[in-house]
Amino acid sequence: FVFFSRLIFGTLYPAYYSYKAVKSKDIKEYVKWMMYWIIFALFTTAETFTDIFLCWFPFYYELKIAFVAWLLSPYTKGSSLLYRKFVHPTLSSKEKEIDDCLVQAKDRSYDALVHFGKRGLNVAATAAVMAASKGQGALSERLRSFSMQDLSTIRGDSSSTVPPSVTVRTSSKQSQPKTSRSASEGTGSSGKC
Q1: Is residue 165 within 8 Å of 148, Cβ to Cβ?
Q2: Is 70 exceeded by the pLDDT of residue 126?
């Protein structure tokens, strides 16, 4: 219930009225809703940390809903009050330092992005080349491992349809070492006697 209440009253309701302010081009409404969104952004940031430490506090979530209602109320004008009393003076006095930090962070993040992008491309290129070379080697090894019998069964042919020249070549290759062995054995045996 708490989540939906905050979603509806803290986000959707102000978003709709911000839309109406943009549509009507009323400067006073612009300023009102911009102050709300600035305060709400700060509240959301702060609650990220306070939720960790204060979630055990009784009625913590109900207090957060009451705070959002106080920010929205046209009678209390909570967001306007907080913005004018605290946020605007603080941001005005620290604006130069904040701008410098943001420029430095932007430059550093751009440099880091370029650096990691180059490294990522190098790693990807190296991986692609290695995969291609391993894949090519694996493919050629796989093709070498096939015998003509394997190839004929892949095509769906029987072994009798293998051309005779291939069969003869295969059988002549196999019989050559046997003949040369028997010839050398015969030569070796005749030389011994």
Answers
A1: no
A2: yes
pTM of the full structure: 0.51
Residue at 89 is within a domain: yes
Inside any domain, residue 62: yes
Read off the tokens for 186: 């015969």
Q: Answer yes or no: is 41 within a domain.
A: yes
Could you tell me if residue 109 is inside a domain? yes
Q: How far apart are CA 66 and CA 12, in angstroms?
A: 16
Asked whether the beta carbons of 71 and 40 are under 8 A apart, the reply is: yes
- Domain residue limits at 14: 1-115
Contacts of 139 (CB under 8 A, 6+ apart): none
**140-180 residue pLDDT tens:** 565 555 555 555 555 555 444 444 444 444 444 444 444 44
Domain count, the chain: 1
